[in-house]
Design a protein that fits this description.
The chain is mostly helical. It contains three helices and no strands.
């Protein structure tokens, strides 16, 4: 039973290997011959020395071939594995760059918000300064108007003083 199971597993292995169809057919044919001869041997039928030598030679050839195929597949696997490892490393680098860009973007957004607040503050201060300037301009106008009125009063007082002086000179001349 195990003997036949082993051959079934070898048949399955040959079908799953990616070999040219012609090689698969030849190997599966040889496996079938070995199975038949092996079953006869296990059942007690006499097997010739030549058949045993053929089985030994074929087994040796098959094992060497399988070792070569497995070695070739292993090399291919190694290359694919290296390529996948390199791709993974590149993806890690890209991911790190994207994370850095995200952090930089977040920092820039914070900086922009800070600048917007600063601009708003400057606008408010400018509005306050404009109000103060307008108030100062109005006060200057009031002071200027007051000074104009004072000047008018001074001129009027000066004329009165001159008039009084003239009157005093007339009175003094008449006395």
């Amino acid at each position: 039973m195990m003997f036949q199971t082993s051959f079934q597993l070898m048949h399955l292995l040959m079908r799953n290997l990616q070999l040219p169809m012609q090689d698969k057919i030849a190997i599966l044919g040889k496996l079938t011959d070995w199975l038949t001869n092996g079953v006869q041997f296990l059942e007690g039928n006499t097997v010739g020395l030549q058949l045993l030598n053929d089985i030994k030679a074929e087994t040796s050839t098959l094992s060497k071939y399988l070792l070569d195929v497995v070695s070739y597949i292993d090399e291919g696997f190694e290359e694919v594995h290296k390529a996948m490892t390199n791709i993974e490393c590149e993806f890690d680098k890209i991911l790190d760059r994207v994370k850095d860009i995200g952090k930089n973007q977040e920092q820039m957004e914070c900086d922009i918000k800070d600048l917007q607040l600063a601009v708003e503050s400057i606008k408010d201060e400018t509005a306050d300064i404009s109000k103060i300037q307008e108030e100062d301009r109005q006060q200057v106008q009031v002071i200027q108007s007051t000074l104009d009125n004072v000047k008018i009063d001074v001129d009027a007082t000066k004329q009165k003083v001159e008039s009084v002086e003239i009157d005093q000179k007339v009175i003094a001349a008449n006395v």
